[in-house]
Automatic annotation (TrEMBL):
Pfam families: GST_C_2, GST_N
Name of this chain's protein: Glutathione S-transferase family protein
Annotated signal peptide: none
Database matches in Gene3D superfamilies: 1.20.1050.10, Glutaredoxin (3.40.30.10)
C-alpha cells in the first residue's frame, strides 16, 4: 500500500490527500513535518534529501515535490480524467499547475507569513491581485482552470484559491473565482483536505 508522509496543515500535502481521495486510492498516512513527525532523520532524508513533505512511497520508489507526486499518482493509477495520457492534454494542465506553484502561490505565502508575524508588509499584494485577476479571466472561459472538468491544475491551485478568500481586508471582486470556489466545495476531498487550511 502507498505511504504518504505529510501533515494535514500543509497545503502541498493537502493536494496529495485530495487527489488520492478523488481517485479512491487507499494509503497509509505517516505524519511528518512541523510538529507531526521528524523530517530530519536519516530514514526520512533517504526518501527526500530536502527533508520536506509530502513524500509518497510506492514500494521502493519515493516521490517528492507535490506537483511531481500529483503527476506520478495520476499516471500510476490511470487518472486520465485529471491528467490526460496525451502530451498535448498534459501540457494544457501542466502549464497551469506550474503557474500556480511558481507565480500564484509564492507571493500569497509571503504575505500570509508577514501578516502572521505582525509585519503588515503588503509589498506582495499587487502581484497577488494580478495573479488572481488573471485566474478569474481564465475561469470566465471554463468552469475549471484547464477546461470544463476538474484536473490536476485545480488540485494544485486550490489551497491558494481557498487562502485568497481568507485574506483580511478588501478584496478585488472576482465573480468567476467566487463561482469556481463554490464548485470546488462540491468535491468531498476538497472539503476534507483544503477547506481546513488556514
Amino acid at each position: 500500500m502507498l505511504k504518504v508522509y505529510g501533515r494535514p496543515n500543509s497545503s502541498n500535502s493537502a493536494k496529495v490527500f485530495w487527489l488520492l481521495d478523488q481517485i479512491g486510492q487507499d494509503y497509509d498516512l505517516v505524519p511528518a513535518g512541523r510538529g507531526f513527525g521528524p523530517t530530519d532523520t536519516p530514514e526520512f532524508l533517504a526518501l527526500n534529501p530536502f527533508g520536506k513533505v509530502p513524500v509518497v512511497q510506492d514500494g521502493d520508489l519515493a516521490v517528492w515535490e507535490s506537483n511531481a507526486v500529483l503527476r506520478y499518482l495520476a499516471r500510476r493509477f490511470d487518472a486520465t480524467a485529471l491528467w490526460p495520457a496525451d502530451a498535448a492534454g498534459q501540457s494544457r494542465i501542466d502549464r497551469w499547475m506550474d503557474w500556480a506553484s511558481i507565480s500564484l502561490t509564492p507571493p500569497l505565502t509571503r504575505l500570509r507569513k508577514a501578516r502572521a508575524a505582525g509585519k503588515g508588509d503588503d509589498a506582495d499584494l499587487p502581484a497577488i491581485v494580478t495573479g488572481f485577476a488573471l485566474l478569474d479571466q481564465q475561469l470566465a472561459r471554463h468552469d475549471f482552470i484547464a477546461g470544463p472538468e476538474l484536473s490536476l491544475a485545480d488540485i494544485t491551485a486550490a489551497p491558494s484559491v481557498h487562502r485568497w478568500f481568507l485574506l483580511d481586508g478588501e478584496r478585488l471582486v472576482l465573480p468567476h473565482l467566487e463561482a469556481y470556489a463554490r464548485r470546488l466545495a462540491g468535491f468531498p476531498g476538497y472539503v476534507r483536505h483544503i477547506q481546513g487550511l488556514s
